[in-house]
């Protein structure tokens, strides 16, 4: 049985195994706010950025960031 903290923590990890990052990501807009406060257009793009930059940005929440980083630009993600 999960408590509320476990469920929230579990949802923060992007499921990058769902994507073939070598083939690229779709342009579908399904916004993700990363733990770096950057808006990613979708989960695949968050995973792709982690792979390229050797980072471990997680999902802060689904949707647009309330206080986005200046690096946020969904057109470039």
TrEMBL record:
GO cellular component terms listed in the entry, alphabetical order: extracellular region
Pfam family membership, one: Kazal_1
Taxonomic superkingdom: Eukaryota
Single GO term (MF): serine-type endopeptidase inhibitor activity
InterPro entries according to UniProt: Kazal_dom, Kazal_dom_sf
Compartments where found: Secreted
UniProt keywords, alphabetically: Disulfide bond, Protease inhibitor, Secreted, Serine protease inhibitor
Annotated protein name in UniProt: Kazal-like domain-containing protein
UniProt lineage: Eukaryota, Metazoa, Chordata, Craniata, Vertebrata
